[in-house]
């Protein structure tokens, strides 16, 4: 499941990693609310697959904030009202199932690589309220020594040097994210992504500047990912996808323009590496299930012992 600030999305996967059921509920706030919602989506998936909850093999949870996989704890998921939650243990108590937790962007990276059939090294760039990346190498998440890999949103790049909540100035996240758009185009209100392009088309100069700024920041993020990781593919996902083809075309055009000016960048073939996550993809929920299943070699897909607790039917993962 993918627990987001507004909704919790969950899928049930069969032994091949195919989606056999899905569900979506509004996310309740606070530790108790998050746990209640998580338990409800597991029960809902059991109903939809005509199983008992105890027939699921494992539950993988993708959630924002600092995810300590060793302790099974989530810290600082402020858009969910969570300061500290021992999510793994609490959800295990409620469902009776093995639970694993994963950073939501890393989960989305794993799910995107799986659903889009991408092999090799994949970088997933999440342009949402914030900006962060997740990495997958040969189907396995790359998390770094302390789970910090992918926090590229806090690389200072912008000479405008707007303050970032992290305490630095001019971070990528202050340039290319939903929150950046809110501050660079205040006239757009709380959800500027929905009205930005109409304002650009009507000749609003501030909207145009905000859009151009956003496109440059997104392109700079792709360039950074290529230079840092040399991925085969950079997948773009996140809420700002609602800006559609104009964002991606602008991003690719910006990369191509930079490459015209730099033989070095031209050789890196930046824009051909960029792909867009299909709309309505359940990448984060799928990736959470896969990443957690992959932690247990005996339970990994394709392993001969990959059967559920009940031998009556094939294994199923939520
Ligand atoms: Zn920052």
Automatic annotation (TrEMBL):
A Pfam family: ROK
Sequence intervals crossing the membrane: none
Residue ranges that the Swiss-Prot or TrEMBL entry lists as coiled coil: none
UniProt xrefs under InterPro entries: ATPase_NBD (IPR043129), ROK (IPR000600)
Stated family: Belongs to the ROK (NagC/XylR) family.
Xref: PANTHER family: BIFUNCTIONAL UDP-N-ACETYLGLUCOSAMINE 2-EPIMERASE_N-ACETYLMANNOSAMINE KINASE, ROK (REPRESSOR, ORF, KINASE) FAMILY
Name of the protein this chain belongs to: ROK family protein
Organism: Leucobacter triazinivorans
